[in-house]
Prior knowledge:
By secondary structure, this protein is an alpha+beta fold. Helices cover 42% and strands 17% of the residues. Among the domains are: 2-116, Immunoglobulin-like (Sandwich), CATH 2.60.40; 341-507, Glutaredoxin (3-Layer(aba) Sandwich), CATH 3.40.30. The protein has helices spanning 107-110, 117-141, 148-176, 181-188, 207-216, 235-246, 251-264, 271-285, 293-304, 315-329, 348-356, 362-376, 401-414, 434-443, 461-464, 489-507, and strands at residues 26-33, 40-46, 49-56, 63-68, 75-80, 86-92, 97-103, 112-114, 341-344, 380-382, 390-396, 423-429, 450-453, 472-476, 482-485. The protein has a 7-stranded mixed β-sheet, covered by helices on one side. A 4-stranded mixed β-sheet has the order 4-1-7-8. Strand 14 and strand 15 form a beta hairpin. It starts with 25 loop residues before the first strand and ends with a helix.
Amino acid sequence: MNQMKKTLLLLVAICFIKTSYNAQGYEIKLNFKGCKDTMLFLVKYQFDQQYIADTCKKVKNGVAVFKGKNELEKGVYTLVSQEKSIYFDLFINENQKFGITCYMTDLVNTLKSTGNKENEQFFAYIKYITNKNQEFGKFREQTKGKSKEDSAKYMTEKLKALNDDVKKFEGDFMQKVKGTFIYDVLNLKTEKEAAEIPKAKNGRPDSVYQYYYYKNHYWDGVDFKDERIVRTPFFDDRIKKYFDNVIVQHPDTVSLEIDKILNGKCTEGNLVYNLLIGHFTYKYEQSKIMGFDKVFCHLGRNYIVNGRAKAVYTEETVQKIKERTDIVCNLLIDAKVSELYMIDTTYARRVLKMGFDTAKTSGGVTTLYQKNLEKLTPMFRTLYQITNKYTILVFWASDCGHCQTEMPKLHKALEAIKGKVDYKVFAVNTKENVDEWTKFIIDKKLTDFIHVFDPIHLNNLKDRFDIYSTPVIYILDKDKRIKGKRIGTEQVVDLLNMFENIEKANKK
């Protein structure tokens, strides 16, 4: 059953989950015949998490009562055993005083609710679907001894008949419960596919028509203003599927679709709106897909920093998101990086002897810089001095174990395109361990790279290039615009070749 797909997570609610109370309270009486548990949990769905709403610690012979003075938040809940396995889902909505009986020996077929029509209807639905699934399993058993061809034909016929039965049942059931919360919940898992599909020029069903019909009707019947939908087992899957599999995977498209939901379908400040802002912000700030940090920037600037997510984040967190946004938004694909003033290995010891290695404060560094500016100026090796078509900007540290592996790998990989692609490597050592650094360069024969470091601390490398671990690799074009970032050494050559092929294709 779909309702048994979740893993129980015993978590505390995050700050933006609202709680409303009603003095009428709730009382749910269970007669779970044959159940050996001495404790049962009543657990609510909350997007992709689950939280314990109540615990009955006095279960005897399967009889349990969940009771409280204040009403529970409306939505779908699940009954969980003391071993944390899920028994079945139930609806807790307007009517919060009702009973449920069932037998452990045949749980689904014996589920009954007294005093709650929603659960009566829902249990009938579960019973039908579960029995149809079991029927399908029996058909598989009946193919034993048949040839592969006969088995396939038999299963195809049976499956079609089964699907037709289920489709008719679900259609009739949905009509029967239309306008109720059961309809809203089951609608979340119902795929909206075109019934009549026109033919394409090749005579086959028009896949483009199918896609746009599916996308345009994906949210039919989903009320984002109803906070109950987040307390169902299907809403999170619906959201994730749409943004991961249905829409075009491009950051601008994703941002546009988020806006359509948050601005066009949600009520600003309600639970659905707040939860989705939290979900999308985390998802795209953590995204491993290059370029999708643009979505995080969009959310940060258009919803969080400007005060449209006050119920989601504290002021302190908003400030941290602002700081993070300021860094990330300057490093988006096609953003132009500013100049870097670095010191080449050739002058490393001479610069350190000026006292930069022993300076204790930023003020001391500034004084040394001003005092030695005339000597330093000709020593600078800058990023914009590189005139090659591509600049591979690498931040690394010679005492970093991963860097010690990856830098030689990068050097070797680039040999494959040497003389074919116009590039230069600008390798920035993030430390000041000159002896170890230069020894590593010589030992590994990395002499093709321009090796620099920043003993004067002019460049604020950590924030400007978002360096929290090394190595970090960017690919810049001739104008020093970011074309690739935070990539592995094995991706560098592939990306450069891809850029070259795109350029050749565009010239045709």
